[in-house]
UniProtKB/TrEMBL annotation:
Regions that span the bilayer: none
Signal sequence bounds: 1-24
GO MF annotation terms: inositol hexakisphosphate 3-phosphatase activity
Signal in keyword set: yes
Record bears the keyword Repeat: no
Name of the protein this chain belongs to: 3-phytase
Superkingdom to which the source organism belongs: Bacteria
Occurrences of domain BPP (ranges): 16-347
Amino acid sequence: MKNRHIVAAVIAALTLNSCGSSLAPIRKDALKPDVVTQKLPHDTDDPSIWIHPIDATKSIIVGTDKDTDGGLYAFDLAGKIIKKSIPLQRPNNVDIAYGLVINGKKVDVAVTTERETNSIRIFSLPDLEPIDNGGIPVFEGEEMRGPMGIALYTRPSDKKIFAVVGRKNGPSGSYLWQYELTDAGNGKAGATIVRKFGNYSGKKEIEAIAVDNELGTILYCDEQFGIRKYIADPAAKNDNELALFGQKDFKADNEGIAIYKKSATEGYILVSNQQANTFMVYPREGANGNSNEYPLLAEIPTSTIECDGADVTNVSLGGQFKNGLFVAMSNGMTFHYYNWDSIQQLIDQAKK
């Protein structure tokens, strides 16, 4: 089944044309996935990893199926579909956070954007049940509203959770809106707007967003322009751009972002080089004593086709994922799982 999925994805990719640029074929030296998930009905877009609090081998991957009749799907570590959410109208990206307080209890949540309803949707984990009263409107009062990217920030000081939401288009300086997730009563979650920020080149769109809770930063891909960095905490009242990097590293679109944490402050930022079918790797902590300097460390060729979204964890999930798991969306309606050791080996080789 694994080989069948990979072949189907390759065939699909060779028939596509994106951004006026032909997609690169899978390289002969491309990293092969340890697991390819079961196919979804429509169009995979973005995954997020939920770590089981007691038995990490029971952790799940939550991924979006981007269609008018789409939804969130939960996969086990063998790539098998174990749950589908209620139907959603074109869910785009998804992120996960732990311990949102609802009715006095801590609830782990998956939050996704629902483009055709201009809202975000909140689901409890691991049961993947909605707890949002049917959806929470975003970008209210704006002409350009369709939400796409999302990332969740958990503030270390008080464990409050904030959603950073991007959209298909918007004005530079206030392209991203940040919402505090709240207890709306009756066992439901709500959200309150707390911040509008974010520069935008106008070249394409902002879809891929990632938050580094420990470092307190937001990274997002201004597609075909670069990767931008901001402070995550809205209480800091600092909307200045901290860094802009990766501007000359990508074939066309810079897309999905994943942050691998080797320690509280060190690790790697992996960004999809979408039309090249590779991932570009940067130092999470910066370089040369400058936390806002991000030289390219490595380019990792993978078997994913035109990857939109990715996630990674350093937690041992057992088996082949004892040092962590990297998951990436691939054309062919699947997600690919890679053991972290294979990626680390290629990063180490590139550093020599």
